[in-house]
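About this split. The held-out portion is used to measure sequence recovery: a designer receives only the structure tokens and must propose an amino acid at every position. Recovery is the fraction of positions where the proposal matches the reference. Here is one held-out target exactly as it appears in the evaluation file.
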């Protein structure tokens, strides 16, 4: 590419005017060089593909995509996501789709086994969607899709312009957070005869998964009586009466919360017998109560 040179005029009485003129001419030259870089061909042999412009060569910028993007934005046809439905009746290999985005997720009413995608180039490594789904944090402007024959089945692709943020539940910190946010069922008794009065109802004590946490205890019993929390810590144990020590009304559902720490072993007792436990549940709440 030939770059035009400029020789400023000699200084004279109108030197200040000449300097302004010089600046304007230099700006014009810079703009001309930028346009030449955008529209011109690549550097000499060995420095780029034939017909590749300077921005593509130096910075990897697809100028045609930028022009298309601007046009689509002006037309109001640029959306933050798009979907694509593919008929998988006949097997295909590396079918090109002009899809732009930073994230890709797939769903099918068939199977994703053997369904693969290459990003941006048919020479790129194939990404099998039954192993890596969604694909995120990777910009692409075209995909090459492969699928085995699945008669009557379709594949649906969801592509987002920005990243799909999906927590990795196999990651230990995320797993620990989920355990704190999602209630954990600890015990359940349904339509069962009461044991002897003031004896443990659960066949084995239950312990906390998280510490500290709250246990939500719900109970409905067919006869009136006092429900107590039987807490054991080490060699010691205590009874903690629920409902202020007041007997539960027969056939009414009550719900209580009790704080639990690591090392606590919990059971429940009822002050009378001869009735039925309609329902009794114990859930651990690791998040805010």
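Reference sequence for scoring:
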């Amino acid at each position: 590419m030939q770059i035009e040179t400029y020789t400023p005029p000699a200084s004279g009485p109108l030197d200040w005017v000449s300097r302004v003129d010089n600046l304007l001419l230099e700006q014009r030259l810079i703009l001309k060089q930028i346009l030449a870089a955008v529209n011109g061909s690549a550097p000499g042999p060995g420095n780029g593909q034939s017909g590749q412009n300077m921005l593509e060569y130096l910075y990897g910028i697809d100028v045609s995509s930028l022009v298309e993007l601007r046009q689509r934005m002006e037309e109001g046809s640029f959306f933050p996501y798009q979907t694509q439905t593919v008929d998988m009746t006949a097997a295909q290999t590396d079918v090109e789709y002009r899809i732009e985005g930073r994230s890709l997720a797939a769903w099918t009413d068939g199977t994703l086994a053997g369904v693969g995608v290459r990003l941006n180039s048919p020479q790129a490594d194939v990404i099998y969607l039954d192993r890596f789904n969604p694909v995120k944090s990777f910009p692409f402007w075209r995909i090459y899709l492969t699928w085995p024959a699945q008669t009557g089945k379709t594949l649906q692709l969801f592509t987002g312009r920005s990243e799909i943020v999906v927590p990795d539940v196999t990651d230990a910190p995320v797993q620990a957070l989920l355990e704190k946010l999602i209630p954990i069922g600890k015990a359940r008794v349904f339509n069962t005869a009461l044991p002897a009065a003031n004896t443990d109802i659960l066949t084995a004590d239950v312990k906390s998964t998280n510490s500290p946490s709250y246990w939500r205890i719900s109970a409905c019993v067919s006869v009136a009586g006092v429900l107590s929390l039987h807490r054991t810590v080490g060699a010691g144990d205590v009874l903690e009466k629920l409902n202020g020590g007041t007997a539960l009304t027969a056939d009414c559902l009550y719900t209580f919360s009790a704080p639990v720490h690591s090392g606590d072993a919990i059971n429940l007792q009822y002050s009378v017998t001869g009735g039925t436990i309609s329902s009794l549940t114990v859930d651990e709440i690791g998040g805010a109560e």
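Annotator remark: The longest helix spans residues 15-39.
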